[in-house]
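Notes on consecutive records. When two proteins share a document, each keeps its own sequence and its own token line. Never mix them. Below: protein one.
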Amino acid sequence: MIGRLPRRLRHGEEATLVEHLDELRTRIFVSLGALLIGLAVGFVIHHQLIHWLNRPLPEGRVGRPLTFGVAEPFLTSFKISLFAGFLFALPVILWQLWLFLAPAFDPTAERKVLGLALFAVVLGAGGVAFGYWVLLPRAIHFLTNYDNTHFQHLIQAKPYYNFVVTVLVGIVLVFQTPLIVLALVYLGILSSRTLRKQRRMGYLITAAIALALPGPDPVTTLLELLPMWALFEGSIWLAVLFERRQARAAPASATLGG
């Protein structure tokens, strides 16, 4: 049992190996507890979750997803509940991870990391919204109508939910493009000048990534590619603003240091 939550260490504060291991163990237990609570919540509302996942299916033409076997309905519902529980618990898990790693960062770097984390959450929410309301309905409509004069479409539950989750996860990763570019610029691996000079190559690389992402049809691939190009272009201008801000901050830091 966990008696109390571990105290967060201050930046530069020393601790023994045993204290670090004890803190890590406690934070792992807290994360597992959050996951169990998230799983319980997910299972309680799994009917609503399944209805939400089924909404992109064309109404009237494609019925409810099919299950085969005695245990498949329960196992499918449990997997959906587990995935939802992980998403519910993810903020707690990431927060516990951050509290464990935070002492290694000075307050200035800590604010930057938290700002980037908030930016990642906003981008991820945008990716889920785009994937669910724009990408999935059009991709599923195209796929279920393809050669419908030759095939009768019966949607199996497990492959369908795997497809939905995979596409949503893929588009969330796509929407993290500005964050990745900013990180590379911050590390000095890329610059806004390089990005603008190699813009065509960047568009070609994003097209190759879109082809490698989940989506077996050209409609899904195209709908993934368009936001990738827009995000890549936006990343270039974010890099420009970031470099200008760094350039303004550098003289101020030198003056304070002097």
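Protein two starts on the next line and is unrelated to protein one.
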Amino acid sequence: MVWAAIGMDRRLANRPGAVTCVPFMRKIIPAILTLLLATTLFAAWTFSRFERLEGRAWMAIPLLLVASFFPATMLSHRIHARWLSALNVASGISVGFLSYFVLAAALCWVVLGASRLAGMGIDGRAVAAWAFGAASLVGLFALGSAYWVRVTRITVRLRHLPRFWNGRSLALVSDIHLGNFRGAAFSRQVVARLSSLAPEMILVGGDMFDGVRLDLKTAVAPWSALSAPSGVYFVGGNHDDYGGRNAYFQALRGVGMRVLDNEKVEVHGLQLVGVHDRETHSPEVFGALLAKAGLDTARASILLAHRPENLAVPEAAGISLQLSGHTHRGQFWPWTLIARRVHRDFAYGLNRFGGMAVFTSSGAGTWGPPFRLGTRSEVVLIRLEEG
């Protein structure tokens, strides 16, 4: 949500171990926090006004929870503590519910205004009960939906596809975001879902981690049970840089993943290229890495890159198919509208950029509020065919 959907995090510090606190973030966080607090106050005051509650002290609770969202997130990058993890979860869920409580509050005032224009009397308590009750149910549904990992199946036709791969499938998963909200239990769920698909190859498209301090050994242990005949490959995302990519990558290597370190590998004649997110921000650096890979444009190739941006670079290099994540498809309405506006056709699904096919997954996990509405947590099974 927020900058994850909008793409603001591209301006975060791009060095191993970098967390936040670059000038841009110091400017934007106060503005977002002010907006969150203002909308929280509006929703709480509206509920109190329509329900005719005598005391207002309770309003401090949602205000404090929302106010702690950014501080708790930032501290989690540096401190591993149960109380901090609990605060992060509580504040993240609060921000998620806020999106719907604000809409409920606005609806209350619209109904009140319409009734007065029509010369009708209304029961304000009943209106608030219905509006905020419905918002609560929607929020609970979105919360549950975020932890239900489903399978999306697509077919991609690639020219010059090696005979071995014609009719075979590979699985893509991205944006697991292991950290405060998700740990070993969620890893086991994703691994079980991937294993049940029995793909020829598995690709992990970045943001395995949320960038926070955690017990790496415990978090990644379930992934040791994951295997595929042609291997399991990983490329880093932006959140994998926040906590220091070296430790994260080493942990994944320890459970059998092949980290594609800005390189090309040959898998039964198919050219598989992986470029970490940080290196795709600059078209010059991105292009140089693809040139160094030595692609054979007479054969099919797949690029694993975390975000669907700077697409002109891999298209010019002759990449056949780019697989990405990062956008989360906005996670939940109304943020889905922002993701669509920012990333346009490449916010989700299979599309084309010139001569290159691009598929963007909505990811298996979430960032910020663990909500899904209008999107789904997914792993993707991609059937390759000559064409």
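For the record: The CA atoms of residues 144 and 371 lie 7 Å apart.
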